[in-house]
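Appendix B, Record 12. Input sequence as logged:
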Amino acid sequence: MVETLDGKDEIKIVPGIQSGERIKLKNKGIQHLGRNMRGDHIIEIVVETPK
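Logged structural output:
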């Protein structure tokens, strides 16, 4: 689950995803000024491994 402007949204993390990869949630970002459109919400993956 990831927190978005509209509340929580479920995302799918594929096996083998690497740190630095990005997932785009279309039309879940901030609304464009003067337009009835929203941008995309970009999530950057950070993989932490146990020590």
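The longest strand covers residues 22-25.
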